[in-house]
What does this fold into?
Amino acid sequence: MSDNLDDFEELLMGEARRNYSAKAIDHAMNPRNLGAMENADVYASITGPCGDTIEIWLKIDDNIISRATYITDGCGTSIASGSMVTELAKGKNIREALAIGQQDVLDALDGLPEESRHCALLASNTLKAAVREYIDIKKEPWKKTYRKQK
Ligand code: FES
It folds into this structure.
């Protein structure tokens, strides 16, 4: 039985290696920054057309993202994309973080198959939404009281 399972796992990994870069597989299997954040400054959640959701929390000090975490109920590629976009965001100022787009996530993951590229877009859009939330709250701090932090 365990031999069969090992064979099956090997088959799946072989399939994954044919379609995904080593970096994408690594971020899907060993996601960085996974989990909700307590005391985050901002939070954003977006559900993509595929029905999957990515949620991102940011801690921002003096306009610099000091921590970024995420969770997703989506596919392996959304796990890899959330992991990578939070890695890219850390240490960036809010202007630089707003400029992180789908292509940056794709490049950092050494590409994704055509049918999975939208997962990188969902991750970068969620990051942008969290940063915009920060900018909004900075302009009108009273809004924070009414925002759901999850
Ligand atoms: Fe929905 Fe990947 S298929 S985020």
